[in-house]
Amino acid sequence: MLLNKSWILIVFLISLTSYRPAEWNRFTITGKAQGTTYNIVYYGKDSVVTKGMIDQKLMQLDSSLSLYKSYSKINQFNNSEKGTILDDHLLTVVKKSLIINKDTNGLFDITVYPLVEAWGFGKTKNKNVPNDSIIHSAQKCVGNDLIELKGNYLSKKNPCVKIDLDGIAQGYSVDILADLLDKNDINDYVVELGGEIRVKGDKKPSGEKMKIGIESPSEDEFETQPFNEIIKLNKGAITTSGSYRKFYESNGHKITHIINPKTGYPQDNELISVTVYAEDAITADAYDNALMLMGLEKALDFVEKRKNLAAYFIYKSNSGTISKKASSEFLKLKNN
């Protein structure tokens, strides 16, 4: 299974309709995968997509992208001296990662795994804060300049280079499940995996848009409270990255899982969470961590310059209160 993005701050909210004509049925599929849970709701005449079909897709994804499967393609690369041939899933995710790395000036970097391990958020968990020497050593193994993709072969310039797809793989998995529904002529659905969501169509027979709830932290930014924002969608994807769902404390300091590959240290700015809207989940998922590392002002400016993104920020103001800010496109989503 993939690393659990349990810090994700969103769930989908779909209410049952008291009456449905015979031509519309509501089908729900739930289960566990990738260290978390999944929930799929779709509307149609027949249950053409089953739990078995969903689980088979998720097992295929694990065989490619999971750090927790010793035989996976990602582990074959990580354990190699020089690199390996990628399967279709890993190739797609790596290609997208390289694009986002360039667009974010290196803040999204799949080679960050040596730093993730150093800070205790890898497969082996620990709460020992690394010293500067350990961080400096790990950084020698981090950087997109240390990998090269030619065709379907990903090479590494140093055997210590390891990749971590935790910041993009669940979004990609959501897209793969959505694609499965599309190929079976299902046009109204919500796919949710570990809090990452993709929506298409609307509720039947009412025609209402799907509702997405965004969870908000309390005045203590490392605690949560019920959903304080709800948006309605009939297409697109929503993902969230937050600093207060996966962390540990050391000498009174909160150490979050969001590691800056350029500095080697965890995120340390006013942002508490970033919710991103994009056309597909792989895109939204890839950008949310990078936006967290930018800080509010730079992240908002970054999003406003890109037509394919919208974002909602929760942050701690200078006065210590929890505040919120939305990009102009996200405000349109809230008000539609």
Write the layout of secondary structure elements.
Layout: E1 10-13, E2 25-33, E3 36-44, H1 51-65, H2 73-78, E4 83-85, H3 88-103, H4 113-118, H5 132-139, E5 147-150, E6 153-156, H6 169-183, E7 189-193, E8 196-200, E9 210-217, E10 224-233, E11 235-242, E12 247-250, E13 253-256, E14 271-278, H7 281-294, H8 296-304, E15 310-316, E16 322-326, H9 328-335
Antiparallel strand pairs: 1-9, 2-3, 3-7, 4-6, 5-6, 7-8, 8-11, 9-10, 11-14, 12-13, 14-15, 15-16
Helix pairs in contact: 1-6, 3-7, 6-7, 7-8
Tell me briefly what this model is.
The chain has 336 residues and is of the alpha+beta class. Helix content is 29%, strand content 29%. An eight-stranded antiparallel beta sheet has the order 2-3-7-8-11-14-15-16. Strands 1-9-10 form a three-stranded antiparallel beta sheet.
Order of the strands making up the biggest sheet: 2-3-7-8-11-14-15-16
Number of helices: 9
Provide the residue-averaged pLDDT: 88
Order of helices and strands: EEEHHEHHHEEHEEEEEEEEHHEEH
The name of the CATH superfamily of the domain at 70-156 reads ApbE-like superfamily
User: And the CATH topology of the domain at 70-156?
Assistant: T-fold
| Estimated helix fraction | 25-40%
Beta-strand proportion: 25-35%
Structural class: alpha+beta
Q: Output the radius of gyration.
A: 20 Å
Q: Biggest sheet, open or closed, and with what strands and sense? A: 8 strands, antiparallel
Low-confidence stretches: 1-10, 14-21
**Number of strand elements:** 16
What is the level-2 CATH architecture name of the domain at 70-156?
A: Orthogonal Bundle
Span of the ends, CA to CA: 37 Å
Kindly provide the name of the CATH class of the domain at 70-156.
Answer: Mainly Alpha
* Apparent shape: globular
Oligomer: single chain
